[in-house]
TrEMBL record:
InterPro entries: WD40/YVTN_repeat-like_dom_sf, WD40_repeat_dom_sf, WD40_rpt, WDR89
UniProt keyword list: Repeat, WD repeat
Organism of derivation: Smittium culicis
PANTHER family: WD REPEAT-CONTAINING PROTEIN 89 (PTHR22889:SF0)
Pfam families xrefs: WD40
The keyword Repeat appears for this protein: yes
Record lineage: Eukaryota, Fungi, Fungi incertae sedis, Zoopagomycota, Kickxellomycotina
Sequence ranges of the WD repeats: 243-277
UniProt keyword Translocase, yes or no: no
SUPFAM superfamilies with a match to the protein in the record: WD40 repeat-like
Record protein name field: WD repeat-containing protein 89
């Protein structure tokens, strides 16, 4: 997305796009779904918006006359993946409701193909889709696999997005090929013994740097200290520690690899800017 725009989604079921240049709290575009939203992403060419929902009471679908992209929902439809085409007036393009059975915690759009994306859910399923030739859910699904653990984060890895990483709610990390073949299971990231390395209470995020074709993992401890690792096939290698910024759990980190900086946000209410990462 252009650096002048900010996007958000909410349990109100709306993805909103803001233009920071106009100095207004009003969104310049809105994409409305009938279900509360937990995750979303925007295609590499900014044409499509894809969002994943929270699990809902399917019995309310008929009562509330819920529909999307000319599809009415039935009681079995409890979670949805909603796709909008930003070029269309109505915008509603397609909806997938049959694959996942619980909250869709992650949506990640492909870095090179505007009609490919993957989804991850608290049901443990990872699904990869391509809707370039069909919007039928079964036919659009390329591959799927299960981690048997609730999924927290997903992200594409590689110059052609030929791999993806998966972080679960149990703080395990794994690397997969784009046909859902497990490449490497790194196991649990938790470390409670300082003699074995930095203390790790939780995973914060993974980030892929296209410039050096490397995947970076950030972890944290309950005191607000952060550690950054390089993730390779052979293992996870410690690079640096970020201390003195936060005093509580850190929930997010965003790297600017070009400028060698990062920005973090934590439960202590602070936003910290780090240099020389």
């Amino acid at each position: 997305m252009n650096k002048n725009f900010v996007a958000s989604s909410s349990l109100d079921g709306i993805v909103k796009i803001y233009d920071v240049r106009i100095g207004s709290i009003s969104a310049v575009q809105e994409f409305i779904s009938p279900f509360p939203l937990l995750s979303f992403d925007i295609s590499c060419d900014n044409q499509f918006v894809v969002a994943g929902s929270e699990q809902v009471d399917g019995n309310l679908n008929k009562k509330n006359n819920r529909s999307f992209a000319n599809k009415g929902f039935v009681s079995d439809d409890q979670v949805g993946i909603f796709i909008w085409d930003a070029r269309m007036d109505k915008k509603e393009y397609a909806v997938f409701t049959e694959t996942h059975s619980n909250d869709i915690s992650q949506i990640r759009c492909h870095k090179q193909s505007n009609m490919r994306f993957m989804s991850g859910s608290t049901d443990g399923l990872v699904c990869l889709y391509d809707f370039s030739e069909t919007i039928d859910e079964d036919d659009a699904m390329l591959f799927s696999s299960t981690t048997d653990i609730s999924i927290q984060q997903l992200g594409y890895v590689g110059s052609n997005s030929e791999f993806f990483y998966c972080v679960t709610d149990m703080n395990t990390l794994s690397l997969w090929s784009d046909d859902c073949t497990l490449v490497k299971d790194y196991g649990s990231l938790i470390n409670e013994d300082e003699s074995k390395g930095p203390l790790i209470d939780y995973a914060v995020n993974c980030d892929f740097n296209e410039a050096d074709n490397s995947l970076y993992l950030t972890t944290g401890d309950i005191s607000g200290n952060l550690d950054v690792f390089n993730v390779e096939i052979g293992g996870v290698n410690h690079l640096t520690r970020l201390i003195g910024g936060h005093s509580d759990i850190v929930r997010c980190i965003e790297f600017n690899f070009a400028h060698n900086t990062a920005i973090t946000g934590g439960e202590d209410g602070l936003i910290c800017l780090w240099s020389a990462i």
